[in-house]
Amino acid sequence: MPLILVDEREKESPVPSRLKDLKVQIAYKQLSVGDYVVSRRVCVERKTVQDFVSSIFDGRLFDQAARLKDAYELPLIIIEGGLSEAAALTGNPRVIWGAVASLITSFKLSLLTSKDPFETAELLRSLALKEQAVKGMGPISRRKPSLETMEDWQLYVAQSLPGVGRVLADKLLSRFKTVRALFTAKEHELEAVVGPAKARRIIDLLNAPYDGGRLKQVELKSSP
What we know:
This protein folds into two domains: 3-132, Rossmann fold (3-Layer(aba) Sandwich); 150-212, DNA polymerase, domain 1 (Orthogonal Bundle), CATH 1.10.150.20. Helix content is 55%, strand content 14%. It has helices at 14-21, 49-58, 60-71, 83-90, 93-105, 117-132, 150-158, 166-176, 179-183, 187-194, 196-207, 212-222, and strands spanning 3-7, 25-29, 36-37, 42-48, 74-80, 110-114. A six-stranded mixed β-sheet has the order 2-1-3-4-5-6, sandwiched between helices.
């Protein structure tokens, strides 16, 4: 029986229950990359047509694509409903085709479509069976990317800010030049790059006092 790691945010989706019906073992985890991990090489981001379109316009799509590409050898995006339906939602089909072209050429992602969540589950099962037929190819949740250069570390630190993925991290560092300058930027300066909502969240995080005492209390209670 193949095993698939499922992001906890997918619990409300019909896909996990369908996977169980298909005799696939699932394990819920808080995944930092993707929605379904089917092997050490393959990770899948699942998107409905509506989510795919909205993620293009708010910038999430390319942040997610960059994270997938950095973490897994064979990243994959499954769009439920089809690209024609997505193109119809935008009123400008070239937006969709341009995004698809970027995913394939710039991020080296595979892009597939399914009719509905049940077809998605069938595809995930087939991927898991194929991958896990080879010993040692079980799913692995990857968190921290390999950081070898100063640029890797700068991007990694910038991406730790709320609502900031790789694309926004690159924009922020290009604007402020150093991590120190980014972390000491004024709210209005951040707004010019990330918008008011994300700028407010970043400022709130950077100004929030750390309550280390709460962690110490937990440690004391758990001590033998």
